[in-house]
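Support reply, case 0932

Customer input (verbatim):
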Amino acid sequence: MFNERPYVLTIAGFDPSAGAGVLADVKTFEQCDVYGMGVVSALTYQNDEVFKKVDWVEFSNILNQIEILQNRFKFDYIKIGLIENLEILNRLILILKSYNQYSKIIWDPILNASSGFVFHENVNKKIVENTCKQLYLITPNVPEAFQLGEFKDAKKNAEYLSQFCNVYLKGGHNEEQIGYDILFTTDKKKFEFSIKEKNVFSKHGSGCVLSSAITANLAKDLKLELACAEAKNYITNFLMSNDSLLGYHSNIKAVEHG
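Our regenerated output:
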């Protein structure tokens, strides 16, 4: 079986508006020159402005979706988005590793919808630490980083968690510096990324898109820092694409990042 593009898997919620979740992930993968496949972890009832409710897919049905794909395709990079709880997440990680022990898993810890809907209110910090030990990268935004750690500072929490796995702190909710992101690596390095364009607009699902772009770039064998820098270009183009809440996907690489 011949294919020039690496296969990448996302396990995420289904958003009917296609702005976030598994549909947005696959669109991002396609533009980033990898072949994306998707497993649905939840059915959400939402559009770009309103979130009504979520129905979680039974764990056995998530596994059935994974099994049929893993029996045919090898995934070296897997992204996990919206998931019912940390117990389910850890069970998924074990199963994914049983198919490919060298697979690198990226977790985008979606705790709240952008519309304000709360998925996970109380997060066990010790379980988070143990989970991170099994992951390659997590990509929380500022409010999520507050919830994942013990400190009352998102940056400190992100830096603390980077002793267990790499942490990309997304800055879309950073009130002091909008769009200012920080990558904390397990070898205690720090890289900063900012948007230098002015004509950017808020987008539904932008966090999902950024995490997916990073995952796709890693699957193309880019080093972590460069994968994040290219993903920052991608999300900047996405935010600039129009002034609505639903962005257009393209992978123009002319945007300057810092």
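We compared this against your earlier run and they match. Two observations from our side: The beta strands are 7-14, 35-46, 51-56, 77-80, 104-107, 137-138, 166-169, 181-184, 190-193. The two ends are 40 Å apart (CA to CA). Please reopen the case if you see a mismatch on your end.
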